[in-house]
Specification:
488 residues; alpha/beta; Rossmann fold; seven-stranded mixed beta sheet
């Protein structure tokens, strides 16, 4: 559960730090409705770059940033609708776009969701404690970014096999970067490093996205509401035409938006996707894969499995081919030649590797349920290709320059997408997946057995977390009042 207990001494120190650094904390409500942000703050953003290490950019942790690298204000929910000329299915596949968050990925929102409650309660003292951000990539970037704004020391933990761009970026922002063995699938090694740091005697606080309900609460509140707003723009008949949301597992946080969606549209299905090379949910499986942006071999503590209707596994060879199709000149030209509108083909760089995996999963979902042209499926483009240019270079070195023949092969791979490696989940299928949490979280990470039981059997467990959003906002308002910065 999300602890909102006040630590008076820590709170006093955190307030002093925020006052010194000129930091005003945005509320979750403001992230949902940025038009409610004070006009003076909105005006100042006109001269601030999206990735600048400027405290004002905390107010850009929203799905509604104007798509601009500098000086942008606010607009509608950032998204891209993929045409059937690309996807091969008549259904409308629409993806929320994460590129227009600070750091270029929505994970900065999840990091805020974990950090803000502990900051405004005084549980985390940015003057004394180091903030530790365990991740497979973008989350630790978001955490290091938020920490930098606060002027506190940060430790980013991520597997050594992640893209070089991540490490280059962290070198300039994070206080320390720790590389753990392996790649996307090696989450336990990250957790092991966290235990090592706990035992070191250093004054640290670990913000673990995989078990921190601040991650869940942020996505439930901010991403879920953004999705509902978008759906209402896309169709006048959401109760009939909105069919589902398809999201990669990762930390499990984004799947919390599915809980919000089901409360608005009871018929909507929530599908969780993962790499076929590491089919943890599908087959209790394990292995290594290349879909950067998702972590495997465990079920995240924050994943409400009771609300998951389907599991979809994607062969990592498909997104690794499609990122070339979507980003190499020969690939983009081929897409245009075969009917993909130029405004779409020229913007497919908005989809990073895990985003393309999400897209493929949405196509499989649409084919499985034989969806029609009026039906809508939502997914998320967590990040863009900005952090994966080195992967394109590696693929070129391995396979040679990308040409028309390669583009034809990639297009054929997309067209050949089938409904294999999918499973609709019944009650006991869900319970099987939920039970996998035991081995990671009870045996290894020390969670309480009563809590894993409550997650499954207590009908109010998840609702009790969801109801905390207004309480967190009240604490943020009180924190800002103590700094006095809104009055200046």
């Amino acid at each position: 559960m999300l602890d909102l207990t006040i630590n008076p001494q820590g709170l006093e120190s955190a307030v002093a730090c925020a006052r010194e650094k000129n930091i005003i904390i945005p509320t979750l409500e403001q992230m949902c409705h940025p038009e409610t942000i004070p006009a003076a703050i909105r005006e100042k953003l006109g001269s601030v770059g999206l990735w600048d290490l400027n405290p004002l950019n905390l107010f850009r942790i929203t799905w509604k940033n104007e798509p601009a690298v500098s000086g942008g204000k606010y607009a509608g929910v950032n998204h891209i609708e993929l045409p059937s000329s690309l996807t091969g299915v008549p259904a409308r596949i629409v993806m929320l776009v994460g590129k227009w968050f600070p750091t270029g990925a929505h994970k900065v929102g999840a990091a805020f969701g974990c950090l803000a409650p502990r900051l405004v309660t005084g549980q985390f003292d940015p003057r004394k404690q180091k903030a530790v951000w365990p991740s497979t990539g973008n989350y630790c970037r978001g955490g290091a970014y938020d920490s930098n704004l606060l002027g506190c020391e940060s430790i980013a933990i991520l597997p050594e096999g992640m893209s070089q761009e991540r490490f280059d970026w962290l070198a300039a922002v994070a206080g320390e970067t720790i590389k753990t063995p392996g790649s996307e699938s090696n989450v336990k090694e990250i957790f092991d490093k966290c235990w090592e740091l706990r035992k070191s005697g250093d004054d640290i606080m670990i913000f673990n996205q995989f078990d921190d309900m601040g991650n869940y609460l942020w996505h439930y509140t901010v991403t879920g509401r953004a999705m509902v707003e978008l759906i209402e723009q896309l169709t006048d008949d959401a109760d009939k035409r909105f069919k589902g949301v398809v999201l990669s597992t990762g930390s499990g946080g984004t799947l919390a938006s599915g809980d919000y969606l089901k409360q608005q549209y009871a018929h909507v299905k929530v599908a969780a996707c993962e790499a076929l090379q590491c089919p943890t949910l599908l087959n209790n499986g394990f292995g290594a894969h290349r879909i950067e942006g998702i972590g495997d071999k465990h079920v995240p503590w924050v994943h409400n499995v009771r609300n998951t209707d389907m599991v979809i596994a994607v062969d990592d060879e498909v997104p690794m081919n499609l990122i070339r199709l979507f980003n190499e000149p020969a690939g983009v030209a081929a897409l245009k030649e075969h009917g993909v509108p130029a405004e779409i083909a020229d913007n497919l760089h908005l989809l990073g590797i895990s985003s393309v995996a999400n897209m493929i999963s949405a196509v499989k979902f649409a084919k499985y349920y034989e969806l029609g042209e009026d039906d809508v499926v939502l997914s998320v483009a967590t990040d863009s290709m900005e952090m994966y240019q080195s992967r394109l270079a590696e693929l070129t070195a391995e396979k040679g320059a990308y040409d028309e023949q390669d583009a034809a092969y990639s297009r054929g791979m997309l067209a050949a997408t089938t409904i294999d490696n999918m499973e609709e989940l019944g009650y006991y299928d869900r319970k099987r997946i939920h039970n996998l949490k035991y081995y990671t979280w009870i045996e290894q990470q020390g969670m309480a057995f009563a809590d894993i039981q409550a997650q499954w059997y207590d009908e109010h467990y998840w609702e009790n977390i969801q109801r905390l959003a207004p309480e967190v906002d009240k604490l943020i308002d009180a924190f800002n009042a103590k700094t006095g910065l809104l009055e200046g």
